């Protein structure tokens, strides 16, 4: 292992250790919105919204795997990164929790549609194996974390790179804003389902978003920094694959 790779690996390990020390997981039984918390009509509505994006994601994922099988490892890394980070729980608004999402990394590499599949699988496994979230609210949770978050990450990354803002800045901003966007959507979902008696949906949204912001803004910043460390590590060990991904994106945009 050369010196640069050794330093990159040490920084990555130190980043994960610091991240888990600062964001120590606490007991919680929610994955964004817990099982049975949403009224049935809203739970079904968010499932209907989510399904088309999942279908697009399946098509995109199949295309990448068939045409570029060497990308399977990076796809697995993207899913594992999202699973590990989103397993951290900090109790927040009643029936919900704050936590990092980890979806920005995969969205940067493979685009938002692939993450609609990986993110929803992460949510499903955590609902079934860790009792975080549920099946009825999976559609709502997937829209916030697996659809909107990755779309924001991908859009922010592309904008900053095209503006020559620097790749590390683009990675940081994409991961952090994807995290924040996820909780903005969660706040909207809760506000629509439970409007305030005084002020309605807007007042309810302000309440939910305000409470989320206390924990989510520091989490978003730390997730952005950690994602930059992981990105640097990938550039050291998977430079060839990342170069192929950049070439693939250019061909698709033509």
List the helices and strands and how they pair.
Elements (H helix, E strand, L loop, with lengths): L2 H20 L17 H28 L4 H15 L3 E2 L5 E2 L5 H7 L1 H18 L8 H25 L4 H27 L6 H38 L1 H15 L1
Helix pairs in contact: 1-8, 2-5, 2-6, 3-4, 3-5, 4-5, 4-6, 5-6, 6-7, 7-8
Pfam families: CbiM
Subunit structure: Forms an energy-coupling factor (ECF) transporter complex composed of an ATP-binding protein (A component, CbiO), a transmembrane protein (T component, CbiQ) and 2 possible substrate-capture proteins (S components, CbiM and CbiN) of unknown stoichimetry.
Subcellular location: Cell inner membrane; Cell membrane
TL;DR?
The protein is an all-alpha fold and 254 residues long. The chain has nine helices and two strands. Helices cover 76% and strands 2% of the residues.
Structure description:
Residues about 5-30 have low confidence and may be disordered. The chain has nine helices and two strands; from the N terminus they run αααββαααααα. Helices cover about 75% and strands about 0% of the residues. The longest helix has about 40 residues, at about 200-235. The protein is globular, with a radius of gyration of 18 Å. The chain is mainly α. The protein has a single domain, classed as Arp2/3 complex 21 kDa subunit ARPC3. The chain has helices spanning about 5-20, 40-65, 70-85, 105-110, 110-130, 140-160, 165-195, 200-235, 240-254, and strands at about 90, 95-100. The chain has a two-stranded antiparallel sheet with strand order 1-2.
């Amino acid at each position: 292992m050369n010196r640069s790779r050794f330093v990159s690996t040490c920084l990555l390990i130190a980043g994960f250790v610091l991240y888990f020390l600062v964001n120590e997981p606490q007991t919680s039984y929610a994955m964004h919105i817990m099982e049975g918390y949403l009224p049935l009509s809203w739970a079904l509505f968010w499932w209907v919204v989510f399904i088309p994006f999942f279908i697009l994601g399946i098509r995109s994922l199949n295309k990448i795997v068939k045409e570029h099988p060497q990308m399977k490892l990076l796809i697995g890394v993207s899913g594992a990164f999202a699973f590990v980070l989103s397993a951290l729980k900090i109790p927040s608004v009643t029936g919900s929790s704050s936590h990092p999402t980890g979806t920005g990394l995969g969205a940067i590499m493979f685009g938002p549609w692939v993450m609609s599949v990986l993110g929803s699988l992460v949510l499903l496994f955590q609902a079934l194996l860790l009792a975080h979230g549920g099946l009825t609210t999976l559609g709502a949770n997937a829209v916030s974390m697996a659809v909107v978050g990755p779309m924001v990450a991908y859009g922010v990354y592309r904008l900053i790179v095209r503006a020559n803002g620097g790749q590390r800045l683009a990675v940081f901003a994409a991961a952090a804003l994807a995290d924040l966007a996820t909780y903005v959507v969660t706040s909207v979902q809760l506000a629509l389902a439970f409007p305030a008696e005084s002020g309605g949906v807007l007042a309810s949204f302000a309440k939910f978003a305000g409470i989320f912001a206390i924990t989510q803004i520091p989490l978003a910043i730390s997730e952005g920094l950690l994602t930059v460390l992981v990105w640097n590590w990938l550039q050291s060990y998977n430079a060839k694959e990342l170069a192929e991904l950049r070439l693939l994106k250019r061909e698709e945009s033509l």
